[in-house]
Amino acid sequence: MPHQHRSQRVEAVVLRHSDWGEADRLLWLFTRELGKVRAIAKGARKPRSRKAGHLEPFTRASLLLARGRDLLIVTQAEAIDLYQTVRADLVCLGYAAYVVELLDRFTYEEGENQALYHLLVETLSRLNEESVAAFPVRYYEVRLLDLVGFRPQLQRCVECGKEIQAEDQYFSAEKGGVLCPGCGTKERTAHMVTLPALKVLRHMQRSNYSQAKRARLSTSVDRELEYLMGHYLTYLLERGLNSPAFLRRVRADASRASLDQNET
Fold first, then answer.
1. Coil, strand, or helix at residue 68?
2. Does residue 138 surpass a pLDDT of 90?
3. pLDDT cut 90: percent of the chain above it
4. Among 23, 138, 226, 250, which residue has the fewest nearby CB atoms (within 10 Å)?
């Protein structure tokens, strides 16, 4: 926030929060105007707080931020989108938690980044509106890597430079891209990637969302890409993510519930 302004109106998505003092909340926000910031919501934990319902994780809100001594202070909050469909479905909620955690882990309080903000908002909206949650998340991973500077090389072998052929390949997180079969078999940490999965990744990398949706994302390809991208993202972050375990658990619960319902 510019020093000459004591307060500023921003649009933000609440990434997460924690308790602060006796009745306040410390918020991590990703804003359209300022990038990622921390702010205090005074009295937000009080039962009659008017701000509390507008400051839950995954909420997009219009906020008035004032400059405090050490942190920004939320003086006004009005929800723009609560993403109610996401909140009503545990699997969608798990995907939303993953989307938000990825952005949180890859960003710092380093100023405005409207491209990342719009990607976050668009992805949450797609999760809220579309019947299949996996595709928006796979596309989000590819676009996020572009925007944070870790775009994987998918066109040529990162070891020998040869153009990738229409066959199963290998992927190296350490080298940041695809290895041809000749180089991949020599790389101890490389993982095999099937041709259908690689085709989807390459299509997403070069397409806008409406174009990307023309690709068919089968369950097997989705699971392969989930594993592959999870491995690459964990390598880049140098630590594991919390949300995938929750997502796997609620997805398994939903699958069991569906089987039980079919049996009855």
1. coil
2. yes
3. 83
4. 23
Q: Which residues 6+ apart lie within 8 Å of 6 measured at CB? A: 66, 67
What Cα–Cα distance (Å) separates residue 153 from each residue in 125, 146, 171, 202?
Answer: 29, 11, 9, 9
What tokens does 222 get? Answer: 């989705």
- Write down how long the chain is: 264
Residue 9, Cβ density class (10 Å: 0-12 exposed, 13-18 middle, ≥19 buried): exposed
User: What's the mean pLDDT when you consider all of the chain?
Assistant: 93
Q: d(Cα 25, Cα 18) in Å, to the nearest integer?
A: 6
Domains of the chain with bracketed CATH: 9-82 (2.40.50.140), 88-263 (1.20.1440.120)
The position carrying tokens 């095999």 is 192
Q: What is the residue whose two structure tokens read 């969302």?
A: 209
pTM score, whole prediction: 0.92
